[in-house]
Amino acid sequence: MNAVRSDAETFDAIVVGAGLAGMLTALELRPRRVALVSYGSLGQWTSSAWAQGGIAAAVGDDDSPALHAADTVAAGAGLVERRVAARLAADAPHAIERVAALGVRFDREDAHYALGREGAHSRRRILRAGGDATGAELVRAIALAVHASADIVCYEDSRALDVVLDAGGAVAGLTLRVAGDVRTFSAPCVVLATGGLGGLYRFTTNPTSSRGAGIAIAARAGARLADLEFVQFHPTALDVAADPLPLVSEAVRGEGAVLVDARGSLVMAGVDAALDLAPRDVVARRVFALRQANERVYLDARHVAPDNFPERFPTVFDACMRYGIDPRHEPIPIVPAAHYHMGGVAVDLADRTNVPGLYACGEVAATGVHGANRLASNSLLESVVYPERIARDVAARTFARVVRPAATRAYAAPVPGSDAEWRSLRDAMYAGVGVERNEAGLSVAIERLNAIGDASPSDDVREAAVVGALVAHAALRRRESRGSHMRTDHPERSIAERHRSYSTLADARSA
Ligand SMILES: Cc1cc2nc3c(=O)[nH]c(=O)nc-3n(C[C@H](O)[C@H](O)[C@H](O)COP(=O)(O)OP(=O)(O)OC[C@H]3O[C@@H](n4cnc5c(N)ncnc54)[C@H](O)[C@@H]3O)c2cc1C
Questions:
Q1: How many independent structural domains does the chain possess?
Q2: Ligand 1: which residue has its CA nearest to atom 23?
Q3: Which residue's CA is the closest to the ligand 1 atom numbered 2?
Q4: What is the pTM of this model?
């Protein structure tokens, strides 16, 4: 057992996660003294750094926050919180200016931002940087700003374990594993910015370390979770022997690439009026169904940007060439992969959870803005909008000056999960809690997840199994198909189910 060191450091706030949401929150909290905790170095193993397409904001002359909010509501299949969408869209232009002031170099055309268009956006409103390397540019500039800040103490190569509460149930600090020790830092507020959970699935575009740790930490502290069943699968991850899988951005289809089978037949014909630009979930289901029937599916981009594909899509081109696929001369093999989690830790309009002093932002938060399906490029946006709000809320609240963590539990020395355990867990999630679900498949997945968790000596595997089971139970309870959640045994949308869903830790083992 690791004893918890008692020489507790004291901070004004602790932020867990050094992707876009976490780093920006730490910056916005200045001049408060902040601890920033992350698995790797700043920006390493984050979805933020891998984001390609861009970030949505109504900054064009023909656009408005009201139009942006309306598109967000339409994409969310009846479950978007309208007030939340309106505020996100309204705050977007200002948030873009704030990150630009931190040194982010967005692509420009003349004096204006270059604006792209993506599926389900009614206007050109996608800002990008470095062509298709938007996330990398955001992370580069913001990590530099964090490193330059004397108020932020970075604990890289560390792992948050548990939020520590005081006797009244409010946040008093965080227990973390840092440099081989388990330590407890004191702080009256903790912000979880731990990203998504794609790493729970056999095929994912996320860092494999994105396994919903923030959901587990929040749930153990008594926080409410929301909308867990809604996992967005990207239809066009590169189908190669890699883990995670490189993403082939939707922008390639936006420029005319089409999905074909091994014989070259168009696979979206007759499926949706928008053909290859149909909503992500529709395309993902079609590709999944063909693969279930042992068909391979390809993205044919041979006619796209014929003169400058490598310059127009540098990230996609490099990824393909790394695996010996030249997209200029051959179709790109693709597979649907877990990409984005709409659900997470339930927060209110101020990003507060129901645990006093505990906040969540970025992908781990469930604000209600995405409903059952995220509008493309709204996730980087929420990661840049919410940090300022959290900082304002923290500044306006009176927290106890001295917080006293209640006793913390002892932690066993870390045992990594074995390859076989991770494979079984991730296969169970992809097969039973994936693109298509039904009662029998979900029940099998829950049994397998429980069995894997119960048998494992690894805290990591046990935690991942609990998060997976929470997602599966939420999917089992929603007896309808809506947005990203497709139940083959309940294929219709149900008016009775038109509500958000909520879970707590106890639901991981519910009957
Ligand atoms: C390939 C790809 C392309 C994408 N493209 C776009 C796009 O074009 N536009 C868009 O809007 N969105 C896009 N997304 C989604 C978007 O990138 C993410 O939703 C967003 O970046 C999430 O940011 P975040 O800060 O919440 O999490 P992340 O960037 O994933 O960061 C999570 C952080 O939490 C840390 N962490 C987690 N658990 C712990 C723990 N227990 N202890 C310590 N640290 C922990 C990790 O180390 C990491 O630092 C894309 C996603 C992927 C994977």
A1: 3
A2: 48
A3: 51
A4: 0.96
